[in-house]
Amino acid sequence: MKKEKQILKWLNNDLSSKEMEDLKQSEDLQTLEKIAHYASQLEVPKVDSQAALEKLQFKKKPKVRTLNFKTFYSVAAVLVLALTSGYFFFYNINTSIETQIAQRKTFTLPDNSEVVLNAESKISFDEKKWAKKRSLTLEGEAFFKVKKGQTFSVKTTDGIVTVLGTQFNVKARKNYFEVHCYEGLVSVTHNNKTTKLPPGKILRVINKKVENVEDFYSKNPSWILQESSFIKIPLDQVIAELERQYDLKIKVDGVDTSKLFTGSFTHTNKEIALQAVTIPLQLSYKIEGKTIIFYNYGAN
Amino acid sequence: MTNNETTLCDEKYFRDFYLKHVQSASNFAYYKCGDSEAALDLVQDAFTKIWENCSKIDFNKAKTYLFTSITNLFLNTIKHQKVVFQYAQDAQDAPNLDTNNQSPEYILEEEEFKQKLTRAIASLSETQREVFLLNRIDGKKYREIADLLGVSQKTVEKRMSAALQILKAQIENI
Fold this sequence. Notes:
- The complex is a heterodimer.
- By secondary structure, chain A is α+β, with helices and mostly antiparallel strands.
- Helix content of chain A is 28%, strand content 34%.
- Helix content of chain B is 70%, strand content 0%.
- Chain B is elongated and about 60 Å long.
- Mean pLDDT of chain B is 82; it is low at 1-5.
- Chain A: The chain crosses the membrane at residues 71-90.
C-alpha cells in the first residue's frame, strides 16, 4: 500500500472519479476492493428499537444496582429465619391450658365461655382467631358453659363436639369418649356420624364402641363437686380416673377389669375413694409404696 | 442552550434520543464484541447509565458519551470472547462484487473470500475493527468516527490504515 493516503480517501468517499482512476492505475486494488465491498455486506443484528426501549423502561426508574450475592444470601437467610420463627411464634403456638394429675382448673375463654378442666387434661386454641372461630382442641376431660354465639367446637381424637351455646361435658380419654349435654343442644360427630344430644342425654364410646347409656338428671358433672361418678363403666376406666385424681399407680392382681362399676368416689379422701370403688366390686386393696394393688376379696 | 440539562432528563427527549441512536450504538457494540446479544446488553446498560446521569450530561455530547460508555462497559465486562461475524443468508442482502457474474466458480470463490474476510476481521484489534466497520458498514466518515470515539481524525486514519494492511496481508497469505 504505497498510496495509503489515497486509499484512505477512497474509502472515505473523498476521491473524485479521476483520482480513483489514477489510484487503480498505480496500485493493485483487487483485494482491497473486495475487502471494502464485502466488509460492508456484513450482517449487523437489527435492533427492534421500540421493544428494546420498552425493556429499558423497567430498568430505568429504579437505579439499577448489581446484586451482591453475599448480601443477597445473608438477607435471604435472615428472611427465612424471621419467617420461620415468625410462623412458629404467631401461628403454631396456640394458647394452651393444662392440668396435672390431681389438679383442676377453671378459666374463661376470650368470649367469656367457661371451662373447667379436670385432672391431667389439656386444652389448646388460637386466641387470635377466637373471635372468628370458636374452636379448641381437648385432650382429657372438661366441662363447658358456652356463651351464646357462633358455633363452638371441641375437637378430640375421637370426635368433634359442636354447639351454639350450652353446657356440656366432654371426656376424651384413652379408649374412652363421652359427652354429656346439660343444657341446649349438642352435636357430636364421631366416625363421620353426627348425633344430636338434648339435655340429659349422653353419648359414650368405649373401646370404639358406642354404648347405650341411660339419661341423667344432674345439673353439673359430679367431678365439679369433687366427686367422680360412674354408671356402668368398665373398671379399667374407673382405675384410670382414680390414678388421675390421686397421684397413684394402681395394679390389679387377678381382677377382671372389664367388670362394670356403678357408683362414685370422692376426690378428697384417698382411703374412702379406694374403698368406694373396691367394696361394691368385692375387691380388696393393699398399698405397696406408691403402688396400690387390687385383688379379689378373700383371694389372699 | 441553557435547558440542555433538563432535556435529556425529560423522558420524551430521552426516548427520542434512544430511538435515534440505538441501532448505531448496537452496531458499534457489535463490532467490538461480535456477539449480538452481548452487544444489545452493552447498549441497554449504556443508555441506562445516561438516564441515571442525565443531569450531568451535555445534550450535544450525549452521543459521544453513549459510545464512550459502550467502550468502557465493554472493557469492564467482556473479556476476550471469540468474535464471530456473519453474512446474511439471503444473497439479495449481500450481493457479490460483480453481480453480473453468476458462474458457479465465481460464486464459490467469492464465498471463500467472504469466509477469509470474516476471519481476518475477527483477528483485528477491537479499536481497528470498530473504525473499519463503522466506516464500511455504517458508511461513516473518519471525522464522524473521531467525534464518536473522542479521538483525533488522525488516530482514526491510522487505525483504518492498519486495519486495511492486516486484512490485505491475511487474505493474500492464506
